[in-house]
Amino acid sequence: MSLSWQPVSLRLSQARLIPPSPFNGCKLPALPVVDGSLRLTKTRIEQALNDGVAMVNVGHDSKPEIVRLISTYRTNPVTGQADDLLLDINGALVLRYVRRDLRAAVAANPRRKNTDASRRDLRSLFLDRCLKMDDAEILEHVAATKNELTVMQSTTDKTAVDARIPSHWVRGMHVINTTLDVY
Fold it and tell me: What is the reported pLDDT for 3?
């Protein structure tokens, strides 16, 4: 038996694309359902996930759905240290979302002078946007790390500023460990 790969259109509602909502359980109606005898066991699915393979399984309603979107990113390429920041695909989506949101806020008023007052205003703008993302459960611990948010004049370019924005992103709940106490 040969399996052929065909392009599949993945259409998810816009609400599902707002980070950090994980894609676990998202239905893929355009995919054909695999025969029960060819389906992977839970052990094989877990092995594939541990190897950085995003998995699709047949759900309880007999329709294909995403088990978890995962990448092969496991170590920081600069330091060589173990790093799970971008292991989950949502990590990259959250970074992109935050970056675009902050850039859009800055672009709303592009005429700024590089003065102490303007840099304080820009810091306030970034903090306000980050607090809103904290309320939306995209970022977390913003209030606790707000003193680390800095906007300073660049040391190499007098027409630029360097902003450092501490961001703890909200991760998806992928594993639920349970204990069943039987009496």
Answer: 39
Report the alpha-carbon distance of residue 162 to residue 142 in Å, rounded.
Answer: 19
Burial of 50 (0-12, 13-18, 19+ CB in 10 A): exposed
Best-predicted range by mean pLDDT (22-26, 30-34, 113-117, 170-174): 113-117
User: Which helix or strand (DSSP H or E) is residue 104 part of?
Assistant: helix 89-107
Handedness of CA 42, 62, 56, 178 (dihedral sign): negative
Give residue for tokens 């695999």. Answer: 34
Out of 54-63, 101-110, 123-132, which region has the weakest mean confidence (pLDDT)?
A: 54-63
Q: Which residue bears the tokens 């306000």?
A: 128
> Please, which pLDDT band fits residue 61 given cuts at 50, 70 and 90?
confident
Answer whether 67's CB lies under 8 Å from 56's CB: yes
| Cross-strand partners of 64 | 58
Rg over CA atoms, the chain? 22
Count the alpha carbons within 13 Å of 75 in the hemisphere toward its beta carbon. 5
Helix axes 116-135, 89-107, angle to 10 degrees: 140
CA atoms within 13 A on the CB side of 67: 20
